[in-house]
Amino acid sequence: MSHQKRDDEHGEPSQVVAPADPNEWSGEEGRRYHIMARGMDIIWGSDERFWKWHRLPLEELREHLSIDAENRSCEIAELNQVSWLEATKTLDLDHEKYKKVFDGCESCEILYNIKFKVDAFGWHGVPVTFQVNTPNPDEGYTRDERLESYRKRCSGWQQIHGGQFKVPKTEKKGNVKFGMYEIKSQRWKGGILLAGVTLKLHKSDTTD
């Protein structure tokens, strides 16, 4: 399908307009950027033995995660069980879409939107690794955290800190890849809902 706009006066293409990504959008006056689970790379995500996909009511997104998803069809990933957990996202900061997202942005905090079911299992004593790789190897981020405390703390949606990165100032910015992993223990685990991630953008005039 063509996404070219035509100049009404001359009948010639004026510019190419990229189609909107239904799984990603900006919110809260450009201070948040939401990436739903469908927009992430989830190992075994297309195999229903391991992951299932559900529509998430928009009012639940808005009320519990402050995500305004009006006129969108949002899906979340429900983990049945896996022994290899890997959910990642790569951002090409040189892509026009992300140039606009990170324009004037100094740094970015990554928040994973997760909910534990009452029958969640396999998380006790198993650290999950949150990792961020940036164009500058010296600015990478890795943290191991046991998620059992989150499961005990709350039965609703929670935002779990998954790292941060500085937005490169150079003209050629490169890729940022972030993800959550549990691939060491080989223990079976399940019972979480993943609604994706929210990127909290810290701009030059941002104080929070």
UniProtKB/TrEMBL annotation:
Q: Which Pfam families match?
A: PP2 (PF14299)
**What GO molecular functions are on record for this protein?**
carbohydrate binding
- Taking the record's annotation, the residue ranges forming a coiled coil are none
**InterPro entries per UniProt:** PP2-like (IPR025886), PP2-like/Lectin (IPR052147)
Q: Which domain of life is it from?
A: Eukaryota
UniProt feature, compositional bias: Basic and acidic residues: 1-12
Q: Where is this region: Disordered?
A: 1-25
Identify the PANTHER family for this entry.
LECTIN-LIKE
| Name the UniProt record assigns to this protein | Uncharacterized protein
What is the protein's species of origin? Musa balbisiana
Organism phylogeny: Eukaryota, Viridiplantae, Streptophyta, Embryophyta, Tracheophyta
